[in-house]
Protein: Signal transduction histidine-protein kinase ArlS
Amino acid sequence: MEIPTSLQISNVVPQLSPNTNRILEGQTPITSNDGGNVFNDDVLATLSNRDTSITIYNPSGDVVFSNGNVPDNGMPHFSKTENHVLKVETTKGKIHMKIYQKIFSDKTRRLTGYLIVDNSMDQQNHVLKSIRNWMIGLSIIAIIVFVGLSYLIVNSVVQPIKKMSQISHDINEDPTNKRRVPDLHRNDELGELAISFNEMLDRMQAYMQQQKQFVGDVSHELRTPVAVIEGHLNLLERWGKDDPQVLEESIQASLQESKRMKHLIQEMLDLTRAEQVDLQYPDKTADVNEVLNRTVNDMRMIHQDFTITYDDSDLAPDTIIKIYRNHLEQILIILIDNAIKYSTDRKEILVDAATEKDKVKISVQDFGEGIAPDEQDKIFNRFYRVDKARTREKGGNGLGLAIAQKLVESYHGKISVSSTLGSGSKFMIEFPLLKSKSENK
Structure:
């Protein structure tokens, strides 16, 4: 039998047995032949369970049916206008939902009784408590997980920053400290910050080392010319007033050493600047053929006793490289001037430029003294001279090639030398190609 979805007496009563209806109408029930209970209605049995009790009163207030405990408060009281009442009551600490319903005869519409359906909410309360406990448990677990994850995330951010702070403190105490932030193995902003932090420390210490080396080099290299000038001044003080020859020699020597000091200081400043060109001229470009033509022509005018040949047959038209044009010119002047200084009887210099794939190669070749194999790795060191006595006579300070190397490497290029004693030297420089007309085609 189908149970009504809405538990109202108007739905229940029509499905009760005739005997039950007779009792509700105040009539004598018809006894069954087998002496069975007249209240064994299917609908009441279905409605009856351990959580629901049903009590039916006749109009006189007598209990005519109950499948559980009879309510202590007896028959319900209705106002004249009320036919049913829904109440939620607490009895002995338990919550009950009670439905009070008047029963009317379908035929006469007279009041035939009262129905009380008492539904215990224990099961629902148990379910709600279970849900509440689950929610509390899940909330606690979620809070623990959230706190744990938050700690890990915050710690992963804070720890590198703490390391940076500690390293900064250590370097402040000892500027030569080589500590760095270890690789964080992460591709976020913090990983980039750690890389930038290490690069900043490297650059800062490089500048400090440059400054220290500059001061040391200056004090070392200026010692000789200062001593020479001081010696000649002492000669002038003793005999220069009375000896015109001593006066002339001392003045000329002092002037020569002063010029050498000036040239030395300028070269050292150039060397220091060469180590910072990537910051000063990050976007400068130069047309290789234009700069080489101009530089070679200038050197031909200065050194008219030399034959300086420029070959650009393998250079693509409009070849552009990323370099400040003055620096490219300075590199070429250093190499050509160096080739002229160390040339012997054959006064010939060959300058060549070529484009090879994504590179530009420039070479300067002389046919002079050459460089011994064990000296070739040292010639780019600052103040290094292959023959110190002859270099001093020629006015060299041992800084030109060091400046050229710094400039080339600052623009991501390479410089090298191949030489044979007695046959001459060939210096080669290489730069990344930015663009050329052949490439555009």
